[in-house]
Amino acid sequence: MAVQTKKKTSWFKSIRMELKKVSWPNRKEVGQYTAVVFGMCVAVGVLIAACDAVFGFLFRAIVG
Asked: What is the pLDDT of residue 15?
């Protein structure tokens, strides 16, 4: 049982050491990344809506 506890403690210590090595973004970068993600979501949504409209028009033209 003591060996498992030691392994868990070692594992958590190694995670903590790795997290200290991470280069975390600052507030400005987070804002920029958020804007990029939001912009891409809007762009993909518009593209999907346009494709849906075109394919719906073609389907209605062919079927009926």
From this structure: 93
User: At 23, is the secondary structure helix, strand, or coil?
Assistant: coil
How far apart CA 61 and CA 26 sit, in angstroms, is: 52
Question: Which ranges of 1-64 does DSSP label H, i.e. alpha helix?
Answer: 2-21, 27-63
Taking all residues of the chain, what is their mean pLDDT, rounded to a whole number?
92
CB-based contact 36:28 (threshold 8 Å): no
What CA–CA distances, in Å, run from 35 to 25, 31, 45?
Answer: 14, 6, 15
* Numbers of helices and strands, H then E, in the chain: 2, 0
Does pTM surpass 0.85? no
